[in-house]
Design a protein that fits this description.
Layout lengths: L17 E2 L12 E3 L2 H12 L7 E2 L2 H10 L15 E2 L1 H7 L6 E6 L2 E12 L3 H9 L7 H7 L4 E10 L3 E2 L10 H10 L5 E6 L5 H13 L4 E8 L9 H13 L8 E7 L7 H13 L4 E4 L14 H4 L10 E4 L3 E4 L4 E4 L10 E2 L3 H8 L11 H13 L9 H6 L4 E2 L20
Parallel strand pairs: 1-7, 2-5, 9-10, 9-12, 10-11, 12-13
Antiparallel strand pairs: 3-7, 4-7, 5-6, 6-7, 8-17, 14-15, 14-16
Helix pairs in contact: 4-5, 8-12
């Protein structure tokens, strides 16, 4: 049975809340709140419909419902709260209250407006426990939650013009509308999404190729997560460029493989984040989503296949899950083997984790059964060009890297090049 690529976005309609540049003059005099990279990413994702049906940052009722039941108050499945945290002192300083329109700025320039519908507090420890099934501060998602400021501000947002996506990510970033049009133009009706925060080793290749065949897909859409990660993860540039290199070198035919970038700061929420990933890729126009071992997990907080099991508890989400077991290197079989077939689990070599990292960090060339030499060359080049010598996220990388997203100067310039934006909010 065929699956139409024009399936509806989550909630039935694609949210699009972006004003043309001419609108920027209306921001003069608005109280201004500076936001960090994570919030800037989420403003863009809300405004372009990556997060459909969300139209803004969640209010208290939606946050409570999502945390407890993985549903919005509207009834739609949604697994992770999307919130804007602001210090109460900052709200007082700016004189912001319910009913106001606020200017959100990023890196000193206007990004979006927010119509304040509610200002509220939440028990952050309880929120972390519900979303991550742990309140352990060693969990990076829990750390993020416990670090929130003491107030949440809810309301619809409107993006002020198009953001600037910096190289090399500009080649890979598409809005949901753009990507849906592009997929339709290529004739892709059955599209299987591959969520990734890793450079591709041979197991990832087999994962994608196996899911492509199982879904009888027209193409594989690699959707690489670009944003803040924990130290030790791969740098963003290496992820997108290494995946693109697989297509460029013919390991995937050019007409069945695309690499794209998603601005998202990982929560490492395991099964809940798996559901989130499926809904976002549904909004991108995908009909299938592959899920392997330990999807979006970290440490030992979730079972190896918790991301498989959670879909058994949910209604039809409008995107089909392609669930796969682990691919590993088996020296007895003499190549990459599948957990569901290989009978040598005692001698397997896990393609994730220490084996691949030791190859990348060391000076030896990998066996083609583990990591392609072409991929290794790209990763090492990215380490020098973007990672300050390391292919892995470091404190320096987080502090000094060029952001994927910036705001174009001059959006808000009036006659004679004079700015109509007052950063003080006066």
């Amino acid at each position: 049975m065929s699956v139409d690529n024009s399936l509806s976005p989550h909630g039935g309609a694609l949210v699009e809340q972006v004003q043309p540049l001419s609108y920027a003059g209306a921001i003069a005099g608005l109280p201004a709140i500076a936001v960090r990279e994570q919030i800037a990413h989420e403003c863009v994702n809300i405004a372009y419909g990556f997060f459909s049906p969300l139209t803004g940052f969640m209010g208290s009722a939606d946050v409570a419902s999502v945390a407890a039941t993985m549903r919005l108050t509207s009834g739609y499945i949604w697994p992770i709260p999307i919130v804007l945290d602001v210090a109460e002192a900052e709200l007082r300083r700016q004189g912001v209250g319910v009913g106001d329109t606020v200017l959100l700025t990023y890196l000193g320039s206007p990004l979006a407006t927010l119509d304040v519908a509610e200002i509220f507090t939440a028990d952050l420890t309880r929120l972390a426990q519900q979303v991550y099934t742990t309140a352990d501060a060693a969990h990076p998602g829990v750390q993020r939650t416990l670090a929130y400021a003491d107030r949440f501000v809810a309301g619809d947002i409107t993006l002020l013009g198009e953001p600037v996506i910096n190289p090399p990510f500009d080649r890979f970033w598409r809005t949901p509308r753009q990507l849906r049009d592009e997929l339709a133009g290529m004739g892709w009706q059955r599209v299987v999404a591959h969520q990734t925060r890793n450079v591709p080793h041979s197991g990832h290749e087999y994962l994608m190729k196996g899911a492509f065949m199982e879904a009888q897909a027209d193409g594989v859409l690699v959707s690489a997560v670009i944003g803040e990660k924990k130290e030790g993860d791969y740098i963003d540039e290496a992820i997108v460029l290494a995946h693109e290199h697989l297509r460029a070198r013919g390991f995937f035919r050019a007409d069945i493989h695309r690499t794209t970038a998603l601005l998202w700061d990982m929560r490492y929420a395991g099964p809940r984040e798996a559901v989130f990933h499926a809904l976002v890729r549904k909004n991108l126009g995908c009909t299938h989503h592959m899920f392997g071992r330990d999807h979006a997990g970290v440490g030992d907080y979730y079972g190896r296949y918790a991301a498989h099991e959670i879909f058994d508890t949910l209604p039809d989400l409008g995107i089909r899950s392609v669930l796969t077991l682990e691919w590993w290197y088996c020296p007895t079989c003499g190549g990459v083997a599948y957990e569901g077939i290989c009978g040598h689990p005692d001698t397997k070599q896990d393609l994730a984790g220490r084996l691949i990292r030791s190859i990348i960090s060391g000076g030896t060339e990998p066996a083609p059964q583990t990591l392609r030499a072409e991929t290794l060359a790209v990763v090492r080049q990215c380490a020098e060009e973007y990672g300050f010598g390391s292919p892995f996220v470091t404190e320096r990388y987080l502090r000094e890297r060029t952001p994927a997203l910036t705001v174009a100067p001059g959006w808000f310039s009036g006659a004679g090049g004079q700015s109509s934006y007052d950063a003080s909010g006066a």
